[in-house]
Amino acid sequence: MKDFDTYIFDLDGTLLSTLGDLAASTNYALRWAGMPERTVEEVRMFVGNGVKLLMQRAIPGGLDNPRFEATYARFREHYMVHSLDTTRPYDGIPELLHELKRRGKKLAIVSNKFYAATQELARHFFPDTIEVAIGERETIRKKPAPDTVLEALRQLGAPKEGAVYIGDSDVDIMTAKNSGLPCISVLWGFRDKEFLTEHGATCFAEWPEEILGSTADR
């Protein structure tokens, strides 16, 4: 079994079950704007590449809607207050992170969630295990570009050799490829195995503990 020195995790759908709070903030903003609300399953398929794209998909007409920016701003305001209402780590995640930390591994989060929310969630749920948490910022290209992953490695003081990327979406698969890292695709998140396989996934973890002994293609 392949053992890695550095583990870089996606956040939503990988470490945290955030769908309920994302859907609630989406529908709060849509109600405020007098727009049709979305089901949780619709929101599930909208997430994965940052909250701005989530709202582009949720708002009729997307960026062309004249009320897009105001509605998106209302989403952000609501989510920053309510991002912890129902969000929880997936079963087995805290134990996985603590065991990796015990083994001396370096751990980071790289997310397309906006920076302040990524930092807050990392501090709240993983204060003793996650060393670096990077979210969306205007000064750095978001995933699937490799920039945030490379920045996480820089902050960790870790080389690409011996590092692995772990996520739950097609964006994560592309991010790993663009970063030159092996990828483990988790099956408890927002996308199923069939979808992930169609988008190039080759290594899977059905439960968090499997990551402790996973192999991943380089």
Fraction of residues in H or I helices: 40-55%
When the domains are counted, the total is: 2
Per DSSP, the total helix count is 9
Shape summary: globular
Work out the oligomeric state of the chains in this entry. Answer: single chain
Level-1 CATH class name of the largest domain: Alpha Beta
Radius of gyration: 17 Å
CA distance, first residue to last residue? 14 Å
Strand-residue fraction? 15-25%
SSE diagram, text form:
Elements: E1 6-9, E2 16-17, H1 19-32, H2 40-46, H3 51-58, H4 68-82, E3 88-89, H5 93-102, E4 106-114, H6 115-125, E5 132-136, H7 147-156, E6 163-167, H8 170-179, E7 183-186, H9 193-198, E8 204-205
Helix pairs in contact: 1-4, 3-4
Walk me through the structure.
With about 220 residues, the chain is an alpha/beta fold. It folds into two domains: about 5-15 and about 85-215, 3-Layer(aba) Sandwich (Rossmann fold), CATH 3.40.50; about 20-80, Putative phosphatase, domain 2 (DNA polymerase, domain 1, Orthogonal Bundle), CATH 1.10.150.240. It contains nine helices and eight strands. It has a six-stranded parallel beta sheet, sandwiched between helices. The chain has a two-stranded antiparallel ribbon with strand order 2-3. Helix 1 packs across helix 4 and helix 3 (about 50-60) crosses helix 4.
